[in-house]
Amino acid sequence: MLKKERQAYILHQVNLHNKVLSSLLSHEIRVSEDTIRRDLQELSEEGKLIKVHGGALSHSFNDVTYSGLSVYSQDQKRIIGEKAAALIENGMFVLTSGGTTIIEMARALPPSLRATFISGSIPAILEYMMHPNIEVIMIGDRVSKNAKITIGAEAIAKIKNINADLCFLGINAIDIKRGTTENDWEIAQLKKIMIDSSRKVVCCTISEKINTLQPIHICNLPDIDILITELPPDAPILKPYVDAGIQVL
User: Fold this and answer.
1) What is the largest distance, in Å, between two alpha-carbon atoms of the chain?
2) May I ask the CATH class of domain 3-57?
3) Which positions make up the signal peptide (predicted)?
4) Could you read off the pLDDT of 235-246 as tens digits, one per residue?
5) Comparing 3-57 with 74-248, is the CATH topology the same?
6) Gap between the Cα atoms of 78 and 68, Å rounded
7) Is the CB of residue 97 less than 8 Å from the CB of residue 147?
């Protein structure tokens, strides 16, 4: 793979998954980690990503307000957000992760909706606070500067005490054999507890993440009640998930 092709692949993975690990890129592209680090440094100097220890972040992942200027596949995420918002009814307790797709859901909530939203995601909390009739509960603990979400033992303990009607997860990857996976250990632990603390689990993802894999396991397909993408439910790529018993929207 030529340098230009390699860097284009890296940038696409950063935009798609919001965060990449140097070690994983090294394995996928079959080059040394030193080569990956040099590529990340060059891309960072060009303003195309944010280099961090062990990998890189997309600019949208580092944005607290999500203006939309740097959000990957925002039109598709807006469609997903509208589908997700339609599932929420008055009086529900809703537990959500963070991420740009969840932000689009927050922006699609009807002004008349009266519900309680619980999250540790700072960008999501800011969106919920703009809503006229939503009660907002923030899960507190140590804040991940990269993910803009509270993490750690206290956050996990608080989530364990929640009995949510719906849990909305913005997911990084989903595969028919391995279920949903992540590339951040602490966020993966949070999502596992969120699943256990909710009556129904809704996974939201652009279709480009379907049949992809990340290194850290979150849950298997039977743990997912609803899968939402921007595609119509009868799209061929979604058929295996329908066959697995998941409601696809």
Assistant:
1) 55
2) mainly alpha
3) none
4) 999 999 999 999
5) no
6) 11
7) no
CB 169 within 8 A of CB 180: yes
Whether residue 247 contacts residue 225, with contact meaning beta carbons closer than 8 Å, is answered with yes
Question: Strands 247-248 and 226-228: what pairing?
Answer: parallel
Give the number of other CB atoms < 10 A from CB of residue 133: 12
Strand order through the sheet with 173-175: 173-175, 179-182, 216-219
d(CA 97, CA 104): 12
Strand, coil or helix: 198 = strand
pTM for the model: 0.82
d(CA 199, CA 53): 37
Question: Scanning the structure block, which residue is given the tokens 């596949």?
Answer: 73
User: Where in the chain are the domains?
Assistant: 3-57, 74-248
- Tens digits of residue pLDDT in 108-164: 999 999 999 999 888 899 999 999 999 999 988 788 776 778 888 888 889 999 999
Whole-number Å distance between alpha carbons of 231 and 7? 29
Q: Name the token pair of 9.
A: 């692949």
Rounded Cα distance, 75 and 77, in Å? 5
Residues 6+ apart with CB under 8 A from 236: none
Instruction: Report phi then psi at 50, rounded to 5.
Output: -115, 115
Torsion of CA 64, 65, 68, 69, to 10 degrees: -70
